[in-house]
Amino acid sequence: MAKKNKKDVRARTWTFILYPESAPENWRDILDGYHIPWVESPLHDRDVNPDGTAKKAHRHIILLFDGKKSFEQVKDITDTLNAPIPQKTANTKGLVRYLIHMDNPEKHQYKREDIICHSGADIEQYFEISSASRERILWDIMEFIRDEKITSYSAFIGYCQDTNNREWFSIATRYYTLAIRTLIDSIYQDQKEPKDNINNAIIENIKKVKELAEKEYSIRQIADTLGLSKSTVQRYLKK
After folding, report:
1. pLDDT tens sequence across 122-165
2. What are phi and psi of 126, to 5 degrees?
3. pTM to 2 decimals?
4. What is the DSSP secondary-structure string of the chain?
5. What topology does CATH give the domain 11-127?
6. Which residues are CB-neighbours of 63 under 8 A, at least 6 positions away?
7. Closest residue by Cα to residue 66 from 117, 120, 29
């Protein structure tokens, strides 16, 4: 009787959790010594359990092998770091984005710039914006431009950079540049005079939004009082 083929349990991408308090002080040097492309998440020190208690501070580590590796091969590595057992994954994109809870808005949002790539790891492709998301983001951008009556493309790009809004920057420079510039030019023509200091006006609106929020105004009341959209008010409250 012929033997059944065993299921291949190996994988190219593996992940594990690392607890700084139990890992060797030189744990990064140890990982670098394997010459494997790997990715380090920001320190997850704001995560909570379902019952609301704080989770122990930890990092998520991703190992990106050129070829498939077995559980035993990867566990040999994690054992040197006093880390829990590794887990294989077939969805590298989802795993990379989870490093900052990008697709999990109910969880604490960590900063993308705090992700660290080691040994040549490249994860930029996993942050590409889907076509559906691009249109949603464009809507928010145009709503913001109209609310703030922005009359300068350079001022808008400056705002994206000053607030580290990479999604808006990408939309404005890679996908819908012409549409955004056209809207800004139209607002400029309607006003006939450009604003001298767009960022100061935005900062002032943020201040007003927060002042009204402290007075227990609802989002709708704030929006109606200041002549802003509800989504813009919600965005300002997060600043």
Report:
1. 998 998 888 888 999 999 999 999 999 999 999 999 999 998 88
2. -80, -5
3. 0.64
4. -PPPPPP---EEEEEEEE-TTTS-TTHHHHHHTTT--EEEPPPB-S-B-TTSPBPPPBEEEEEEEEEEE-HHHHHHHHHTTTPPPPEEES-HHHHHHHTTTTT-TTSPPPPGGG-EEETT---GGGGPPPHHHHHHHHHHHHHHHHHHT---HHHHHHHHHHTT-HHHHHIIIIISHHHHHHHHHHHHHHHSS--S-HHHHHHHHHHHHHHHHHTT--HHHHHHHHT--HHHHHHHHT-
5. Replication Protein E1; Chain: A, (3.40.1310)
6. 13, 14, 15, 16, 36, 37, 38, 74, 77, 86
7. 120
Domain boundaries, the chain: 11-127, 131-237
Contact status, residue 99 vs residue 47, Cβ threshold 8 Å:
no
CA 80 – CA 15 distance, rounded (Å): 15
pLDDT digits over 162-194, tens only? 988 888 999 999 999 999 999 999 998 887 654
